[in-house]
Specification:
Layout (H helix, E strand, L loop, with lengths): L1 H11 L20 H16 L14 H14 L18 H12 L5 E5 L4 H9 L3 E5 L1 E2 L2 E2 L1 H9 L9 E4 L13 H14 L2 E4 L21 H15 L1
Parallel strand pairs: 1-2, 1-5, 5-6
Antiparallel strand pairs: 3-4
Helix pairs in contact: 4-5
Length: 237
Amino acid sequence: VHGGIFFYKQIMSLNKTIDFRRGHPNPLTCHPYESLAKSLELATKRVLEQKLPLGYGDPRGNSKFLKQLRLFINRRKNQDDTPCRLDGLFVTNGVSHGIDLVCRVFTKPGDICLVEDATYFLAADILKDNKVKIESIKTDEFGIDVVQLENDLKNGRFKSQPSLLYTIPINSNPSGATLSIERREKLVELANKYKFVILADEVYHFLDWNTNRPNRMIYFDKTYISQQNETKEEEEE
């Protein structure tokens, strides 16, 4: 073990080494330092002028930011993917915070949450913190095996019906698998039939440059699509 650690440190000391341990952006090329510095300077000025109250903001997030986020998503989604709705956005302090909020809203201690085998280790920790019982489900190189999942649900493999299913449907961590369109459709069908919520951690969706990238999971939710159409009609009126 000690020899392996020494070798690793030697490798990482090389200037041309790229560290793939963490999904952090390159601080030298990906951080907008100048824009960030100007924003902080402006915010400081507004505080001194008492034009920027340091109180509570909108629970869903800053309205101007949400509008820009909606534009960002709609510009980068697949052409036939479901448009992002403003009322469908909620700002969190990262994915970990989002997972925790979902657990608090849609589960209670003792509920069953299904996760891929294997799953993101920090997500598992968050689920445990919320006293949720974790059950792993079979996966392969294409993601969740929905045929096996359906059999598990039919045959009562779980002590009670699951409340939540956590998945990373594209470039999954750690497997790298991407759930196919057919499996996405079946997974949503199973969720509707067995009344569990799909928590799709799509953090890598816009980092996938394949020409055949599947649409986001929300695209396969017919309930959301119908609400989308109603929202569009109301906006047009």
